[in-house]
Amino acid sequence: MTVSQQDERSAVNDSVSSRPKLAVFKFASCDGCQLSLLDCEDELLAVAGAVEIAYFLEATRRTLEGPYDVTLVEGSITTEEDRKRIREVRKQSKRLITIGACATSGGIQALRNFADVGDFIRAVYAEPRYIRTLATSTAISDHVPVDYELRGCPIDKHQLLEVLLAALQGRTPAVRSHSVCIECKARGTTCLMVSKGSACLGPVTHAGCNALCPSYDRPCFGCFGPAESCNATSLVEHLRACGASDLELTRLYATFNVAAPAFVPAHRLVARTSSASHPPSVPEGEQS
User: Fold this and answer.
1) CA-wise closest residue to 90 among 44, 151, 145, 168
2) 262 and 221 share a domain?
3) Strand order in the sheet with 52-56
4) Is the same domain home to 227 and 114?
5) 251 lies in some domain
6) CA nearest to 161, candidates 47, 48, 5, 245
7) Which of 73, 95, 225, 231 has CB 3.0 to 4.6 Å from 151, enough for a Cys bridge?
């Protein structure tokens, strides 16, 4: 190798080492949110040029040890091993950003939080004794400090790019905090709750999907989680007044963000009032 070639390689190595180190970690999830980064297509080359991808098993087997300048975390905490690992990830991360419903609220697997996880295990697995899991599925922020939460199931790639760029620039991300209703108005979509009496979570759901479902005549079902300062329990009463059944309301709140703190009171309200209005039947032999 000539001196000029050595100098050129040294310059490349210095350039790589001076770039911020990005890490992407997965916990209990479907991988969809981290795939949103790979789905950036045209922007992905710019991202790869701006950072050094130090840990991202979905994209490459090459890994580098921390510390990491920016860490993206997908998935919820469902095992004791998860709980230990996220603490180590936090120690190695200057900025930790959680992405997606699983990481920000526990995901659809958090339905276990309202039932006996042992019943689920016995129903699904042929050999339940081999399964080791926690009784709950919880958000990353329940275990370690989080610098920013990006909601969605899956997340929006444009919001992801904005959050990542803001982290690299040391500023607050410019991500809108209003509800899906505002997105419906912006794109001229007729309100399904008003026009059809549909059970829709748009008034209490965080923006980010560009009102995708309502634009196809399908009510919002809250995949981007609760909007800021939303009143989910009030919406339950309004939807009931519009004719929504207990079954509709139960299904509406028992999805990707069932354990989101702003949605939990509504979920419990539906369950409580549903049980009160439809008490379990008493077998004839036990009637007084």
Assistant:
1) 145
2) yes
3) 52-56, 21-26, 68-74, 93-99, 148-150
4) no
5) yes
6) 47
7) 225
31 & 90 share domain = yes
Backbone φ and ψ for 128, nearest 5 degrees, come out as -60, -25
Cβ atoms within 10 A of the Cβ of 264, count?
20
Q: What is the DSSP annotation of 163-207?
A: HHHHHHHTS------SBHHHHHHHHTPPPHHHHH-----GGGBBS
Query: What predicted TM-score, i.e. pTM, was given to this entire model?
Result: 0.86
Rounded Cα distance between 84 and 79, Å, is: 9
Largest CA distance in the chain: 98
71's enclosing H/E stretch is strand 68-74
Angle 43-48-53 from CA coordinates, rounded to 5°: 135
Q: CB under 8 Å to 92, separation ≥6 — which residues? A: 23, 65, 66, 67, 68, 71
Whether the Cβ atoms of residue 220 and residue 227 lie closer than 8 Å to each other: no
Q: Backbone phi, then psi, for 146, in 5-degree steps?
A: -120, 135
Rounded CA-CA distance 138/200 in Å is 25
**pLDDT, block means (10 residues), the chain with 288 residues:** 52 61 96 90 84 93 94 97 97 97 96 92 91 95 97 94 92 92 95 93 95 95 93 93 89 92 91 62 42
Would you give the DSSP letter of residue 11? Answer: H
C-alpha distances in Å from residue 222, one per residue of 113, 124, 257, 264:
19, 27, 7, 13
CATH number at residue 34: 3.40.50.700
Query: Does the bond joining 154 to the residue before it have cis omega, within 30 degrees of 0?
Result: yes
